[in-house]
From TrEMBL:
<feature type="transmembrane region" description="Helical">
    <location>
        <begin position="113"/>
        <end position="139"/>
    </location>
</feature>
<feature type="transmembrane region" description="Helical">
    <location>
        <begin position="424"/>
        <end position="442"/>
    </location>
</feature>
<dbReference type="InterPro" id="IPR020846">
    <property type="entry name" value="MFS_dom"/>
</dbReference>
<keyword id="KW-1003">Cell membrane</keyword>
<feature type="domain" description="Major facilitator superfamily (MFS) profile">
    <location>
        <begin position="15"/>
        <end position="446"/>
    </location>
</feature>
<dbReference type="InterPro" id="IPR036259">
    <property type="entry name" value="MFS_trans_sf"/>
</dbReference>
<feature type="transmembrane region" description="Helical">
    <location>
        <begin position="12"/>
        <end position="37"/>
    </location>
</feature>
<feature type="transmembrane region" description="Helical">
    <location>
        <begin position="57"/>
        <end position="75"/>
    </location>
</feature>
<dbReference type="InterPro" id="IPR005828">
    <property type="entry name" value="MFS_sugar_transport-like"/>
</dbReference>
<feature type="transmembrane region" description="Helical">
    <location>
        <begin position="151"/>
        <end position="174"/>
    </location>
</feature>
<feature type="transmembrane region" description="Helical">
    <location>
        <begin position="279"/>
        <end position="297"/>
    </location>
</feature>
<keyword id="KW-0813">Transport</keyword>
<dbReference type="Pfam" id="PF00083">
    <property type="entry name" value="Sugar_tr"/>
</dbReference>
<keyword id="KW-0812">Transmembrane</keyword>
<feature type="transmembrane region" description="Helical">
    <location>
        <begin position="309"/>
        <end position="329"/>
    </location>
</feature>
<feature type="transmembrane region" description="Helical">
    <location>
        <begin position="245"/>
        <end position="267"/>
    </location>
</feature>
<feature type="transmembrane region" description="Helical">
    <location>
        <begin position="349"/>
        <end position="374"/>
    </location>
</feature>
Length: 461
């Protein structure tokens, strides 16, 4: 009897550690190419006098575009065979793709095959992360007590900033250990190659896990879906529910996160003209101190509801996005300098503080989202439905934020004073849409029982 009581505690701890570690590594892999876009542009594109930065961002963003397709593939596996097998496969695919990016020869060696190989690897990464996130969140939630789903899935949400922090740390250490010339020549490959070690460790940890109890119960009852993809799109009300999830949370959440992390990073490098080491320091410190809030807001949503936390984060983001970027420029480059320059410690701390507020707002939109997403879909088609909605919103629409903001800046002629900020129209638009959808159409979900007959089978929404 004692063993029976103790087992769930041991299980949930193991589940959280193994699931979170794997997801963290996959986000690390996913972020590397974004942060090192400048190095990829120099090495894998022609040296013809153009930076090729926008083209590199387009290739990097391709992984987000491909994620909805991957979600259907992995969702089908997760709903038919099991959650565990789906995210084991995604982990191996991600690790292999990341390692291979580090092995791509330079453009000078193989010509246009270099960016094409980068594109192929990024598409494979997009497939992998599409199966990873939904699988990890569902796996943890289906083990968790009903009143702590936000708390436990919050650890999965926190893997985004922690994965970025690990990524920044590895890049910073690698860059600091060699000259700029050596890093741009071969050092940029090291963070990609190191990923293989982390992936293998995580794989063996996950391999020891058992299937989720909720899915096992469904499987024993013979109620698993024979055609999850078909049912996800034909079950009455489910397409409408997926649209609510896409435009009520995922698209805006991803855009806010991309804006607070990567658009901010590129803006400080390319518009404010700060030194790379200063930008990495600001991003790293802000990421470290904001990581806790992803899990905090997930836990808070267990007490007051997913919608209240999510809408609060969206409103805060709507205010902070334009204000933050204006202040970055005002503090970091008040004289409009066109060359890279240093700033004072006081200015650095001020930018850190503003960036931290924006990141916390992003954490409020993301913290409760995992629990919210899985609660609105029935167990039978949960992996496929949640995966598609998450990857369409988070990947295809919100994931394009870094590319779209850069594209808008280079495509629209506006006044010199507005040019650095015009790209922010994209994340702001998505946030406005999300607030409207949440207020008018999205139900509260935090009291949903995942084990009821209605939730185990398909249901109307």
């Amino acid at each position: 009897m004692d063993n029976t009581i103790q087992k769930p505690k041991n299980n949930i701890l193991t589940v959280i550690i193994a699931s979170s570690a794997g997801t963290l590594i996959e986000w690390y892999d996913m972020f590397l190419a974004i942060i090192l876009a400048g190095s990829l542009a120099v090495n894998l594109f022609p040296a013809d006098g153009s930076s090729h930065f926008l083209e590199t961002l387009a290739v990097v963003a391709s992984s987000f575009m491909f994620r909805p397709i991957g979600s259907l593939i992995f969702g089908n596996i997760g709903d038919k065979i099991g959650r565990k097998y789906s995210f084991l496969l995604s982990l191996i695919l991600m690790g292999a793709s990341t390692f291979l990016i580090g092995c791509i020869p330079n453009f000078s060696s193989i010509g246009w095959a270099a960016p094409i190989l980068l594109l192929v690897c990024r598409l494979m990464q997009g497939l992998a992360i599409s199966g990873e996130y939904a699988g990890a969140v569902i796996y943890v939630a289906e083990h968790a007590p009903a009143n702590k789903r936000g708390f436990y899935t919050g650890f999965i949400q926190a893997t985004v900033p922690i994965g970025l922090l690990v990524c920044l740390s590895v890049i910073y250490v690698t860059r600091s250990s060699m000259s700029d010339a050596d890093f741009n020549s071969f050092g940029w490959r090291i963070p990609f190659l190191l990923s293989s070690i982390l992936v293998l460790l995580s794989y063996f940890a996950r391999k020891k896990l058992h299937e989720s109890p909720v899915f096992e119960e469904l499987k024993k009852a013979g109620k698993t879906s024979k055609a999850p993809v078909k049912e996800a799109f034909t079950t009455k009300g489910n397409v409408k529910t997926m649209l609510k999830a896409i435009f009520g949370g995922n698209a805006a959440q991803s855009s806010v996160m991309q804006t607070s992390l990567f658009v901010t990073l590129f803006f400080m490098q390319r518009a404010v003209k700060l030194e790379d080491t200063t930008v990495l320091l600001i991003t790293g410190v802000v990421t470290f101190f904001s990581a806790y809030f992803y899990q905090y807001f997930g836990a808070l949503s267990d007490k007051i509801g997913r919608k209240k936390v999510l809408i609060s984060g969206l409103i805060a983001s709507l205010i902070l996005i334009p204000v933050s970027f204006y202040m970055f420029m005002k503090i970091g480059n008040p004289d409009g300098l066109q060359e890279v320059h240093a700033i004072s410690t006081t200015a650095t701390l001020q930018i850190m503080g503003i960036s931290f507020l924006l990141s916390v707002a992003g954490a409020a939109t993301y913290g409760p989202l995992g629990a919210f997403m899985l609660e609105i879909f029935p167990t039978k088609i949960r992996y496929t439905s949640m995966g598609f909605a998450q990857n369409m919103g988070n990947g295809f629409i919100g994931g394009a934020t870094t590319f779209v903001t850069e594209l808008i800046k280079t495509s629209f002629v506006v006044s010199a004073a507005l040019t650095p900020y015009i790209g922010l129209a994209y994340p702001i638009l998505l946030v406005v849409i999300a607030i409207i959808v949440n207020v008018l159409f999205v139900p509260e979900t935090y009291k949903t029982d995942l084990t009821t007959e209605e939730n185990m089978e398909t249901s109307e929404h």
